[in-house]
Automatic annotation (TrEMBL):
InterPro entries: AIR9-like_A9, Ig-like_dom. It comes from Aegilops tauschii subsp. strangulata. Pfam families: IG_AIR9. One of its GO terms (cellular component) is plasma membrane. This is Ig-like domain-containing protein. The lineage of its organism: Eukaryota, Viridiplantae, Streptophyta, Embryophyta, Tracheophyta. Residues 332-404 form the Ig-like domain. PROSITE patterns: IG_LIKE.
């Protein structure tokens, strides 16, 4: 009471005071000695002090005693007090009875006091107290005081990270949590595991987990991340749940048994199918398969699918089963009918379906067009073809702007017909832009040959598409248009075209005037000349000695070269002799020729040396004297 502003701390056997003045105060020393003399011999204070307190940071007090009786049981009771800016006016803080106190924001600048009451062998002694410095403002940097993970480390269980945070003056916010899987070759972040809770999966078996937490205040200040590691995760006991059978319980259909396995990695689990017996119970019909095809003997009876879970180590769990409804025999029926393909003019579409009580191959399909995607019956549809077994169809031009509908009629092996089903393309059929789906030129690229162009047009109704022919010196030049063949699909090659390339160009135009991309067909080879040919050969002149006979011929087949002439004299008995040295197109009759008949043969030769077929005139004569 005489010294309220000072704190005395007992350290070992001596005493230290907050100020030298107090230590030198003889009155205080006398009072202190009196107090010490009142303590029992087994009640000697060794340490009594409080950590420097900070806002929202755990503050620990430290009290210890020495020279206690070896048989004594010491219990310490605590009570925290809040004072003013100086260590005066302390009032008890309700329910703060532990060794640690977390100073609050309103405690900043005020001193703390903690009383420690020792209880030895159920005997309570006078309390010892310690006083702190004023509580300081928190640093604003949160820190993790303690970090634990709660939950059983068995596959399927949920673990929960429990951090204890000192916010140190910051506004409590949402921290950043993550879970890592620790294996023999390092840590791996678990995708999506970013919450305070995490459910153990099969991938976690035989691994330990690391829970990492970074405290973050509302102001965005991050503290240092802390982590804690678990023991190894164990696999769960093999079990199976949600056992069920999928598929229509109809003769000839294949059904499948499913179940959700749990308990580590699955090994060779057992799958069994049983058929209900007439006198009760079930008969095993198939093992080691999750699928079963229903047969004639199953009609009218229920089936049971049994799933026995077994893990990779061979440990067997409790079996679970599912029982189907009675197998029924049904007429052919179609399921999952769909049209695949694009809703575009000229596109090929097809139907896919599942048929029970029949086969897809024997079923029939008819294609229609509809003005609306919602129709009630066939009367609202316009047929595009007759019913066929083919499941593919090419969309015609007439279906543009309409919906394509497929009518699928299932047919059984015995010809039994089931109820038809309909499928419709989601979009209306679009017209393509005017284009060519093929372009070709037929004919021989040779002198005097006729070339014919043909093409395939798609993209609505064709208008006045443009055609033109070109001559090219090389394959890469633009070419010169052949005006005489403009707008024609045919062109006859002329002599002037020899040695050049010929191309055909078509510009597709729709009937509404829309122009598409032009198509060009270029001949692979240069135009070749025709085979050298003598179209006509005449021998002009009178068969009189001294007359010059002239062979007039009409040549065809590229540029003419050195055509070969041979003059022949034929006697009245049919023997003939070639006149030596007479190799030109003319010959003057001589005296020695009198009485003979004269004729000439012509072998056409092209400028490149190619020879044609020999042509011979009729003999004229006999030659008479001049």
């Amino acid at each position: 009471k005489q010294y309220p502003a000072h704190t005395a701390i007992c350290i070992r056997d001596g005493w230290e005071f907050c100020s030298p003045e107090l230590a030198a105060d003889s009155t205080f020393s006398f009072l202190l000695e009196q107090w010490k003399n009142k303590l029992p011999q087994d009640y000697i204070v060794k340490t009594a002090y409080v950590d420097h307190p900070f806002e929202e940071d755990p503050c620990h007090c430290h009290f210890s005693f020495t020279n206690l009786s070896s048989e004594g049981k010491l219990v310490l009771k605590y009570q925290w007090f809040l004072g003013g800016k100086t260590p005066t006016g302390f009032v008890p803080i309700p329910e703060e009875l532990s060794e640690v106190y977390w100073p609050k924001s309103e405690d900043v600048g005020r001193c703390l006091k903690v009383e420690c009451t020792p209880v030895l062998n159920d005997a309570e002694f006078p309390p010892v107290f310690a006083v702190s410095l004023p509580v300081c403002l928190g640093t604003g940097y949160p820190k993790v005081i303690n970090l634990t993970v709660n939950g059983e480390l068995v596959e399927g269980n949920v673990l929960k990270g429990v951090p204890q945070i000192a916010w140190c003056g910051g506004t409590p916010g949402k921290g950043v949590a993550s879970w890592l899987r620790r294996t023999w070759n390092g840590n791996a972040v678990i995708d999506g595991a970013e919450g305070m809770e995490y459910q153990l999966t099969i991938d976690d078996i035989d691994s330990s987990l690391v829970f990492m937490y970074t405290p973050v205040t509302e102001e965005g200040v991050k503290g240092d991340p802390q982590c804690t590691m678990t023991d190894f995760v164990k696999a769960g006991t093999p079990s199976v749940s949600n056992v069920y059978v999928v598929g229509d319980i109809v003769e000839d259909n294949t059904i499948k048994g499913n179940g959700k396995y749990f308990g580590g990695k699955e090994g060779l689990s057992k799958f069994q199918w049983f058929r209900e017996k007439e006198n009760g119970g079930f008969l095993l019909v198939l093992s080691n398969s999750t699928q079963y095809t229903l047969i004639k003997e199953d009609v009218g009876w229920c089936l049971k699918f049994v799933y026995t879970p077994i893990n990779l180590e061979g440990q067997e769990g409790e079996a679970a089963f599912a029982i189907t409804e009675a197998v029924r025999k049904a007429p052919p029926k179609v399921f999952d009918l769909k049209i695949t393909g694009e809703a575009r003019e000229g596109s090929k579409v097809s139907v896919t379906a599942t048929v029970t009580g029949g086969t897809v191959a024997s079923s029939r399909v008819q294609w229609f067009k509809a003005s609306s995607s919602e129709f009630v019956n066939d009367h609202e549809l316009e047929a595009l073809c007759t019913s066929k077994v083919s499941k593919t169809f090419r969309i015609p031009l007439g279906a543009v702007g309409c919906y394509i509908v497929a009518k699928f009629t299932p047919v059984g092996p015995d010809g039994e017909i089931g109820a038809p089903a309909y499928a419709i393309l989601d979009d209306v059929v679009e017209t393509l832009p005017p284009s060519l789906n093929f372009l070709t030129v037929t004919g021989e690229f040779s002198e005097d040959q006729m070339l014919t162009a043909s093409y395939g047009y798609i993209g609505g109704y064709e208008g006045n598409s443009l055609y033109s022919w070109y001559l090219h010196e090389t394959e890469d030049d633009e070419g010169s248009p052949l005006s005489e063949a403009s707008g024609l699909l045919q062109y006859r090659i002329k002599k002037e075209d020899v040695g050049k390339f010929v191309s055909f160009k078509c510009i597709p135009i729709r009937n509404d005037g829309i122009v598409g991309e032009p198509g060009v067909f270029m001949g692979n080879d240069r135009v070749t000349p025709g085979n050298p040919t003598v179209l006509s050969l005449e021998l002009n002149g009178e068969a009189i000695e001294g007359t010059t006979m002239v062979a007039n011929r009409r040549y065809w087949g590229g540029e003419e070269g050195d055509t070969v002439f041979r003059w022949v004299l034929t006697s009245s008995d049919g023997t003939w002799n070639e006149i030596e040295g007479a190799t030109s197109s003319s010959y003057s009759l001589k005296c020695d020729d009198i009485g003979f008949y004269v004729s000439v043969s012509c072998e056409p030769v092209r400028i490149d040396g190619v020879h044609g077929s020999l042509v011979t005139t009729e003999a004229i004569g006999p030659i008479i004297p001049g």
